Structures are given as structure tokens and as C-alpha cells.
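A reminder from the course coordinator: this example appears on the midterm review sheet, so study it carefully.

Given structure:
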């Protein structure tokens, strides 16, 4: 039996951080054994809100790929591919534009939130409004049936499946499989400042390439319980970022439970808990940083990995595109 196909991707707008690690990179490592996995360097999608910063989008192709390999993505088992070099994705996107209305695109809750967050007002780039179709093209072109994504991406998978059903209805047979979103149970990692989402643009992220000093500074500045003033005072664990991170990264669950208990009771200082978290994050990131630095010295090898992954992806996505165009009854030469 062929392994099920998994597709995930990242916009190439900056190096990846601990939020990505918890939310998806960690699980991608285990999928390497059980699934046929493709990772998409989504530079075309990144352009939908970065057209004035093409250099950033280009330069981060290598940075994101470095992050993949540094955490342990194995190019022999996972194909890393570059979106802008896969023309079938653009061709399918063009086709799918005819299968949705502008009103449906504007109703997508993820897009609505993002439009608001980016302050586009009435000047929404058409590419941005339509990027869910481009993502539907990504997913269907690979015939991915499993798409592990953050919670905020669930509406995009839903919209993908609407497209799949339209295509299949028009073709009169199951040309494309529906995809299932897998949302990580751990939820999303908050920023070090306690805000809901870790993101580079909010300045509250710890990158996977962080230096020991950066890690220490981030932990030192981490949001705890603002009312926990003296060590003897009882402290709050809920909403306390240090504990949220311990939950995400400390494998010794019993020790964490005990720390929480002591913190709640009073008598446990922030600095003690922070020291533990600092040790854990230093130990997690040190080998990633070292591997990343080593890989960065071999840029040719890295580019070759992307070229091979993209080559394999080109064949697969091209075949799907041809199947869909033919299946829908377009003129064949
Ligand atoms: N939208 C995803 C993100 O911002 C990136 C992405 C592009 C993606 N194409 C994809 C994710 C296909 C899953 C499947 O993180």
C-alpha cells in the first residue's frame, strides 16, 4: 500500500521559530516514517502580502530550508520543494478561480482576520484574496489527503474541499481526493510577551537559530504572573508563559506538575522556574543551531536538495494538472 500523502508548507518570509517547532516541525519529523511527505517553500504565497519585499521572500527560501534540515527533516524521506518553480500550481489556481465567487473568498474567516490585521482597508491585493485557491492548488496537485496546519488554517482546508467537490462534480467522478486537516493538540505557542501568537513581526518569537544569549534574554523577559511579587506569594500558572513553555518542551511531566503546585502554593520564585526553562531551551536549540551553521556552509548542497525535491514535485503536480484538465473535458492536443 502506498503511504498517504502529506503536504505542509511555510511562507518564506523569515526564519522559523519555536512556535513553528511546536506547531508543526516536531510532527513533521514523525510523519517522515509514516507518510509520503512534501514540504512546500511557499514563496508565491509569501508574495501575496510582500510584493514590495521580494528580496526578503527570496532570501528566506534558503533560511526556511536550513531550518527544515537543522531540525532533522531528512531529504531522502521528505521532499522539499519550491512553489514558484512548480507551474502546475499556478495553472490549477487559475482554473480554480472559476469555481468560487468573490463573496465566498471574502467570507473566509482566516482571510477576513488577516485583511484586518494587515490593514489593507479597501486595497486588498487580488492575489491575497485568492491565496486560498492557490493553497487549494498546492494541496490537490500533490493529491495530499493529510494537511497538518495550525488552527487558523482550518478554513483554508475547508475551502480546498469545496473546490475538490466542485471539480469532482464537474468531472462526474472522483478526480481529486478530499484533504483532512490535522490540528496539533498542543495548540499554539504564545509569544514570550504573553500575546496569543508567536510571530517574528510581533518581535515576541524565539528563532530556531537563536544564540544562547538571545534565548537567555527571551526567557528573562518572559511574561509570568504580574501579581506574583514576592517569592512567598502564591502565583498563577494559567496564562504564565514560562509554564506554558514548560508544558510544551519539558518531557518530565511529573516535575512540571510539582513545580506548578509549588508555584501556586507560594514559595517558588520566577527565577527558579525560568532557570529550568532556560536549560531546556538551550539544550533543545543548541544542536539545531550547530547543524544549521554547518549546513549554511554548504549552500550548494542545500540548493541541490531543493532542486531534487522540486523536480520530483514537478512530475507529480504536472500529472495531476493534466488529469484535471482532461477530466474536466478541456481540449487535448
Ligand atoms: N498558508 C500556510 C502558512 O501560512 C503555508 C502553505 C502554503 C501551506 N501552501 C500550503 C500549508 C499547503 C499547507 C498546505 O503557514
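Designed residues:
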Amino acid at each position: 500500500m502506498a503511504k498517504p500523502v502529506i503536504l505542509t508548507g511555510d511562507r518564506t518570509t523569515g526564519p522559523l521559530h519555536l512556535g513553528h517547532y511546536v506547531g508543526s516541525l516536531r510532527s513533521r519529523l514523525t510523519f517522515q516514517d509514516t507518510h509520503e511527505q512534501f514540504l512546500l517553500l511557499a514563496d508565491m504565497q509569501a508574495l501575496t502580502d510582500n510584493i514590495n519585499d521580494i528580496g526578503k521572500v527570496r532570501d528566506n527560501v534558503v533560511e526556511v530550508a536550513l531550518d527544515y534540515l537543522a531540525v532533522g527533516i531528512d531529504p531522502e524521506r521528505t521532499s522539499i520543494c519550491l512553489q514558484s518553480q512548480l507551474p502546475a500550481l499556478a495553472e490549477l489556481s487559475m482554473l480554480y478561480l472559476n469555481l468560487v465567487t468573490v463573496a465566498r473568498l471574502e467570507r473566509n474567516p482566516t482571510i477576513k482576520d488577516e485583511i484586518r490585521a494587515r490593514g489593507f482597508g479597501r486595497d486588498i491585493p487580488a492575489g491575497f484574496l485568492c491565496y486560498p485557491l492557490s493553497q487549494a492548488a498546492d494541496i490537490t496537485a500533490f493529491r495530499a489527503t493529510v494537511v497538518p496546519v495550525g488552527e487558523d488554517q482550518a478554513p483554508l482546508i475547508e475551502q480546498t474541499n469545496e473546490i475538490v467537490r466542485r471539480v469532482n462534480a464537474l468531472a462526474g467522478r472522483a478526480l481529486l481526493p478530499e484533504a483532512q486537516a490535522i490540528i496539533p493538540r498542543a495548540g499554539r505557542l504564545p509569544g514570550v510577551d504573553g500575546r496569543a501568537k508567536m510571530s517574528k513581526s510581533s518581535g515576541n518569537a524565539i528563532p530556531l537559530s537563536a544564540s544562547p544569549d538571545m534565548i537567555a534574554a527571551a526567557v528573562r523577559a518572559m511574561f509570568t504572573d504580574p501579581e506574583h511579587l514576592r517569592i512567598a506569594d502564591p502565583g498563577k500558572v494559567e496564562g504564565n508563559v514560562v509554564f506554558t513553555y514548560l508544558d510544551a518542551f519539558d518531557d518530565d511531566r511529573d516535575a512540571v506538575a510539582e513545580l506548578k503546585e509549588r508555584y501556586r502554593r507560594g514559595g517558588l520564585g520566577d527565577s527558579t522556574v525560568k532557570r529550568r526553562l532556560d536549560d531546556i531551551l538551550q539544550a533543545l536549540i543548541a544542536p539545531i543551531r550547530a547543524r544549521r551553521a554547518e549546513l549554511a556552509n554548504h549552500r550548494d548542497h542545500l540548493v541541490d536538495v531543493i532542486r531534487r525535491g522540486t523536480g520530483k514535485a514537478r512530475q507529480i503536480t504536472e500529472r495531476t494538472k493534466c488529469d484535471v484538465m482532461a477530466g474536466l473535458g478541456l481540449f487535448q492536443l
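The CA atoms of residues 41 and 295 lie 17 Å apart. The beta strands are 5-11, 36-42, 78-82, 146-148, 180-182.
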